[in-house]
């Protein structure tokens, strides 16, 4: 309610400009987070040492980046506000978008408990969001849109696997599931829902829509 009231005094041109700036800044920030974390794991050779990657805590300077990356999940709520300001209803925006944005901040607060999950979040999610926000700000070729959704699903599966194995591989974290049961359980409650609805989105947007276009084309030829 508040955001549309504030934007109602702005022209549509200014609203589009502000939306583009929002997406462009998130693109730059996501690229920064992804790149600097990837640089760190390459420099420390953790990228070739599975145990160190999963178990070695990140340095204080990278923890600051991780904290800002988690806070950026609140910043991303503006994605929804921008869509609402354009006149889209919550029904049109869809459950996946609303649920995903409403819960990722909480998810990343949990992920920060494990070094492997923390690094993977910034690398994998940072990379996907680099592509996604570039697309929102500047537009990628239509052919690449299914690839972004596919990468989103892959990164969810990979980070969940990493979250699952850390207590087994890392002795320092073997008691975490017992000591912090709810925090350990939360990703298992949230991520499958994301994955399911991203699969649903992929099928509806890229498979079913393609079939409809083929049928429409065949009818025209008839």
Automatic annotation (TrEMBL):
<keyword id="KW-0812">Transmembrane</keyword>
<dbReference type="GO" id="GO:0009922">
    <property type="term" value="F:fatty acid elongase activity"/>
</dbReference>
<dbReference type="GO" id="GO:0030148">
    <property type="term" value="P:sphingolipid biosynthetic process"/>
</dbReference>
<feature type="transmembrane region" description="Helical">
    <location>
        <begin position="21"/>
        <end position="42"/>
    </location>
</feature>
<feature type="transmembrane region" description="Helical">
    <location>
        <begin position="96"/>
        <end position="114"/>
    </location>
</feature>
<protein>
    <recommendedName>
        <fullName>Elongation of very long chain fatty acids protein</fullName>
        <ecNumber>2.3.1.199</ecNumber>
    </recommendedName>
</protein>
<keyword id="KW-0808">Transferase</keyword>
<feature type="transmembrane region" description="Helical">
    <location>
        <begin position="120"/>
        <end position="136"/>
    </location>
</feature>
<feature type="transmembrane region" description="Helical">
    <location>
        <begin position="143"/>
        <end position="164"/>
    </location>
</feature>
<dbReference type="GO" id="GO:0034626">
    <property type="term" value="P:fatty acid elongation, polyunsaturated fatty acid"/>
</dbReference>
<keyword id="KW-0276">Fatty acid metabolism</keyword>
<keyword id="KW-0443">Lipid metabolism</keyword>
<dbReference type="InterPro" id="IPR002076">
    <property type="entry name" value="ELO_fam"/>
</dbReference>
<dbReference type="GO" id="GO:0005789">
    <property type="term" value="C:endoplasmic reticulum membrane"/>
</dbReference>
<keyword id="KW-0472">Membrane</keyword>
<keyword id="KW-1133">Transmembrane helix</keyword>
<comment type="similarity">
    <text>Belongs to the ELO family.</text>
</comment>
<keyword id="KW-0444">Lipid biosynthesis</keyword>
<dbReference type="GO" id="GO:0042761">
    <property type="term" value="P:very long-chain fatty acid biosynthetic process"/>
</dbReference>
<dbReference type="GO" id="GO:0034625">
    <property type="term" value="P:fatty acid elongation, monounsaturated fatty acid"/>
</dbReference>
<dbReference type="Pfam" id="PF01151">
    <property type="entry name" value="ELO"/>
</dbReference>
<keyword id="KW-0275">Fatty acid biosynthesis</keyword>
<dbReference type="GO" id="GO:0019367">
    <property type="term" value="P:fatty acid elongation, saturated fatty acid"/>
</dbReference>
<feature type="transmembrane region" description="Helical">
    <location>
        <begin position="184"/>
        <end position="203"/>
    </location>
</feature>
């Amino acid at each position: 309610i508040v955001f549309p009231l504030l934007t109602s005094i702005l022209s549509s041109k200014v609203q589009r400009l502000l939306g583009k700036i929002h997406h462009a800044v998130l693109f730059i920030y996501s690229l920064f987070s992804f790149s600097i974390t990837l640089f760190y794991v390459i420099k420390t050779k953790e990228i070739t040492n599975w145990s160190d990657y999963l178990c070695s805590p990140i340095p204080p300077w990278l923890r600051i980046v991780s904290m800002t990356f988690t806070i950026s999940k609140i910043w991303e709520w503006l994605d929804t506000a921008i869509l609402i300001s354009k006149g889209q209803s919550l029904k049109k925006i869809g459950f996946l978008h609303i649920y995903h944005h409403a819960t990722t901040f909480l998810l990343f607060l949990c992920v920060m408990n494990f070094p492997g999950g923390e690094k993977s979040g910034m690398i994998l999610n940072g990379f996907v969001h680099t592509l996604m926000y570039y697309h929102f700000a500047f537009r990628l070729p239509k052919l690449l849109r299914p690839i972004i959704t596919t990468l989103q699903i892959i990164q969810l599966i990979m980070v969940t696997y990493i979250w699952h194995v850390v207590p087994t591989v890392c002795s320092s974290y073997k008691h975490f599931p017992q000591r912090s049961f709810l925090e350990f359980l939360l990703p298992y409650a949230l991520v499958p829902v994301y994955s399911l609805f991203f699969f649903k989105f992929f099928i509806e947007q890229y498979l079913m829509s393609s079939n409809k276009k083929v049928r429409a084309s065949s009818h025209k030829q008839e």
